[in-house]
Design brief:
globular; alpha/beta; two-stranded antiparallel sheet; 6-stranded parallel beta sheet; disordered C terminus
Length: 318
């Protein structure tokens, strides 16, 4: 996974495993979309839109061969979904305080740096896979619904939510594209009223997790492969589609579409986007938008806060 860490504007080509991960994600996404449609038919009323923002020039209403693809972590939601999910699993005694402290540190680092560190993300995914091994997919889906309400619902960026709603209002499909587990991503997509989700596919046999992945995490080039596969299956014209992300790791996905957006961008993506006249949106307060580095004291403070939160949770559980 170290090679994934240094996806530069030159971009490495997709490997066979990233193609496999992308195709698996696309297949899972189409199934999740059908599930979401069935569940929405049982619910009353349309999903609640986020606070109104100025209507963007794009999308074009009625263009059904266009769709929108949104990265999740730090684009749609503050922080990383896998860390919020881990916190929820700890609350339900899926693992011990030691693992929670590691999750807390990773989340603190992610929120301060505002970028995806491949080693941190890989460590989090490995931890999650070991934790869910032997558990039923249906069990984790039920728990995931509860965790969304507890830790994720209040972390959605209203501005990004409004952009997604603009595509939906134009009659277009909207997909999340994330390295988070496809089950978690599907829950978030459904709660936001989106079409479905492309996410990392964990292997399961007879509805039970094996602790392995199908291909590799949906990260970097694998995201682009997933979008390409889904677009082919859905009959979409990628030149008319839009993609939104905060991370330079998603340059392959952003470069795939005709309407790339940099949302809350990291420094590398901001530079790359400006050089190509891509649209930029920043919904953060001034704390990160204009900063290049984070003082060491801030990092220590965030770690202390994360550790304190972990200890507080443990004490409440006792």
């Amino acid at each position: 996974m170290a090679a994934l860490g240094w996806l530069t504007p030159r971009r490495r080509s997709a490997t066979a495993r990233s193609v496999l991960a992308g195709e698996a994600a696309a297949e899972a996404a189409r199934k999740s979309s059908q599930t979401i449609e069935a569940l929405e038919a049982l619910e009353e009323g349309p999903p609640t839109a986020g606070p109104a923002v100025a209507e963007p020039v794009f999308p074009v209403a009625g263009d059904v061969r266009a769709a929108a693809f949104f990265d999740l972590d730090n684009t749609v939601m503050q922080g990383a979904a896998i860390f919020h999910f881990g916190r929820g699993l700890y609350k339900r005694k899926f693992f011990q305080r030691r693992e929670l402290a590691r999750f807390a540190w990773q989340q603190a680092w992610f929120r301060l740096a505002g970028v995806e560190d491949p080693e941190h993300m890989q460590d989090a995914r490995d931890s999650a896979l070991s934790i869910v091994k032997g558990h039923r997919v249906s069990e984790l889906m039920t728990i995931g619904e509860e965790i969304y309400d507890e830790y994720m619902a209040d972390r959605i960026w209203p501005g990004t939510r409004a952009l997604a709603q603009a595509h939906l209002d134009a009659g277009q499909k909207v997909w999340l594209v994330t390295a988070a587990p496809v089950e978690t991503a599907t829950i978030i997509a459904r709660r936001l009223g989106l079409t479905g989700a492309l996410g990392t596919v964990a292997e399961s046999v007879d509805g039970v997790y094996t602790g392995k992945l199908v291909g590799e995490p949906l990260h970097g080039p694998a995201k682009a492969e997933a979008v390409r596969a889904l677009a082919a299956a859905e009959g979409l014209d990628l030149d008319r589609c839009a993609a939104y992300s905060d991370s330079h790791n998603d340059i392959p996905m952003l470069s795939l579409v005709g309407h790339p957006y940099a949302i809350n961008p990291d420094a590398k993506l901001r530079k790359y986007a400006r050089e190509r006249d891509w649209r930029l949106r920043d919904y953060r307060t001034g704390r990160k938008a204009a900063k290049v580095g984070i003082p060491a004291a801030a990092g220590v403070g965030a770690l202390a806060g994360g550790t304190a939160a972990a200890v507080a949770l443990h004490r409440r559980r006792r």
